[in-house]
Design goal:
Keywords: Lipoprotein, Signal. By secondary structure, the protein is mainly alpha-helical. The protein contains 15 helices and no strands.
Amino acid sequence: MFRKFILLFVAAIAINACSSSEEMSPIITDSFDRSALLENIADNIMIPAYEDFSVEMSALKSQGEVFTTTPNQMNLEALRVSWFAAYKSWQYIEMFDIGKAEDLQFKFYMNIYPVTVSDIEGNIASESYDLNSVNNQDAQGFPALDYLLYGLADTDAAILDKYVTAENKESYKNYIGAVLEQMNTLTTTVVSDFKAQRNSFVISIENTATSNINKLINDYIYYYEKGLRANKFGIPSGVFSDTPLPEKVEGRYNSTVSKELALTAVMAVQNLFEGKHYKASTTGVSLKSYLIKLDRTDIATSTTSQFNIATAQIETLADSFATQIDTDNIAMTKAYDELQIAVRLLKLDMLQAFNISVDYQDADGD
């Protein structure tokens, strides 16, 4: 009798252990190769985009050094061109908030807009600042360079005076150098870390809140909903406020690039959904092919179609979103509405098909 009791007790423990293990790592019931999905994203989208951005960032830093050494009209224009090239490249990687990018709050140091001008000018005046401080996240990155290259004055001649004849010209030049050094250092760290962690990244496919596949998909949707739809369109057009806020557009001081940056961002999001290799026509295993494998071609085709519809609406807007908001904000909010339709497809329909839970809370609803 005692021996039978022991056997029953051990069996109960074993059953409970199996049950607990399954609760911690839910079994994936579909046969889709999730590792192949992560391999395509890592090898053909993320790493090439990271490497391209790293090259653009290095070029931007070098051009900044040329300008601060010899601040003239030619070098100012060259620095502006390099800034925009790197800013467009950034649109392909901002969605990847994983690994060191998440740990270091990469996106917050690179692209919080609008900048707080008083913080930038205060840092320059004091010549004492810590760009690693979260309090300075809104005083650096691409938006800070936007202000320093376009927003210091109304004319190029007056802007150049800040770097050539002003009493504190060295402080302005030093600040450009510090911002570029910070951006380049963060980029090097993030890119190097992801490449080093690539092998462990592609095998983390469990259906858990901490697996790489679940985090990547959630981060992707979060970026689309908040970083793209809300920040680039909803907030400036006044969707979340009583009045439009054109001063909150991306690329505010340049004033002509917000549309191109937004179109690049939408393209990057659509390319990842469809598994399209970075700056190539080849496609691989993707979120779209995952849906098709699950017999949810309806979601797959509707999402692609909606990205195309949103892109077409954005194409109708002015190059300057601030100008668009001031002259015809209805067209701007229409673009927001088209982007919003895809939020529901990604966040509700796709995640339900994948049996993945949303890991962030809404600020404005679906």
